[in-house]
Structures
1.
Amino acid sequence: MAFLDPRLGPVAWIAFVPLLIALDFAAQDVRPLRSAWRTGYLFGLAFFLVSVHWIARLSDVAISVPWLKYPAWVAAAAYLALFPALASLLAVFLSRRSGFTLAATFVPAWVAVEVARGSGELGFPWFQPGYTQSGMIPLLQLASLGGVTLVTAWVLFLNVLLWRALTPGAGGRALFAVGAVLAFTSPWSWGGKVVAAARPTPGRPTLALVQANIAGEIKWSGQHQREILDRFLDLSRRAVRAEPRPALVVWPETATGSYLRRQLDQTLEVARLAHDERVALFAGFADYRVDSTGATRYYNAAGLFDASGAPGDIYAKRHLVPFGERMPFEWLIPQLGRIQLGQAEWTPGQGSVLFPGPGGRFGCLICFESIFPDLSRDDVRRGARWLLNVTNDEWFGNSVAIGQHAAMAVFRAVENHVPLARCANTGLTMVVDAQGRVLARLPVLEPGVLSAALPAPGLPTPYTSIGDWPAWLAWAMVGALAWPRPRTASRGAR
């Protein structure tokens, strides 16, 4: 599904070649720099209009003014296209500035801008080129060395090599062709050995991931809370009484559409299930607290009931969806909160929480958080032995966005060599091992329970220890290439 399909990986290896051909013309001194910007923008606009078309298919409960999703689709594509335009402009500018060919400036320029696109309050790293390799398991192992950024750099580098190897009249075509072969075979061979060395560990605890498939119109109506809770309780009891018996039952993000831990009747029902069945239960739910000023703060949260039924710590989502869960920069301009686009107006959480669980402590990523590598890396550095991603992708319907979202979560497992369990309301519910292999999953838009053994974690990775060093390297290279040089500096051959 979407990026999880290994057949889509090779498309990315040549996807930038047409852009490189066009930019090579734009890089000529006689052309104004705006031609590079225009070329990159048109490339980006065409890509994002197709790629984010699922915004126009969001369910009506996702937005208070349903017709706004159509201009929002176009606006999102127009905004995101600014980044390919900037990357193209930067690559051509650096080529002219440094005297190096576009082949030397394209990768660092593009990686630097991709990192910027995924950073900050409006950060949206969705569609970073490296994510296309989520189904190419040997190549995916590069993420353990330098995160998704390294895989992105590899994809771009391979495009550059193939472009130069296929360009008629270009110098060193044979050398570039050999380089392309080595750039592909070396990580594939190494990654294949890493995957082959990771053998299944018997006796691992079983998880039961409950996919109740609750439609948004029902979930958020406020009139079906008892019915929704009963469905989760029924599915959970069936899972607990089946073999193998799970050590932990998981419900997805905002599972019941209620303030589960603040409504005594629902809390008691869940606690009774955990106590009677002697099983721990983890659930996502809406939550609220009154702060020291007397203001009520609302959170997208998750928490654990232990096997005795006692409620434990609560985790509040740290990175909220801009425009969906909170207006961006509302902390700076509070009046932005008065704009109603159907956003939930959650308050961001203040830090990670590690929960005790089968197979060791685990960190929680709620929905959108799974696309930000620094959050999972922080959890693992603090001692998490596996990651749990709870999400509600019902807003996407049966669009490709479900698979795109799940594919990015796979990288969090490989980057840190820890298994990842993903529990979704409507899908994609799955269990992923430390090498990024999807070991089990449920069909989307169908109720069910995925009972699967939790894989074992692997050895610590360079990415977990060092962080996103490819991003730092890209920015350092951009700075070095932009450093003023004598006018007499000779330009490299094109």
2.
Amino acid sequence: MKVELIEHTTDLEPTIATAVLTTASKSRPSNLFQRLRGDPNRVAKILSRLEVQHGSVFDHNRLCWRVEATDKEVLDVLMKNRFFTFTRLDDSTWLSSSNLRTAIRYIQDNRDAFSEALSESIFDISLKSLGGLRVKMS
């Protein structure tokens, strides 16, 4: 199975930090987001303290992958987590998408080629965005 990230929500870390702050702030989410986009150090500080219990802050985004896989491999992924979407592009190529929460849950629950590829693609986004910040998952 070959998995290539082709698109993702931009400003993912400020989006997640906004979701965290929205629950405790009287500021409008759009104002929080704009301020956070201009302050990567504050975003890093918020995310470094984040211990995810239920993962709802990771629902505010979308990731899309180009997947080369057999029908059986795609069915196996869908049987393990029904929140991925797959659209056939040709005999062995698929467009797949999910939110970050779904991808993280899959990675936590499964040790297979798909989970490894998901993990690598998410790590690559993190490296590009905030120099490799990784959120502690509990």
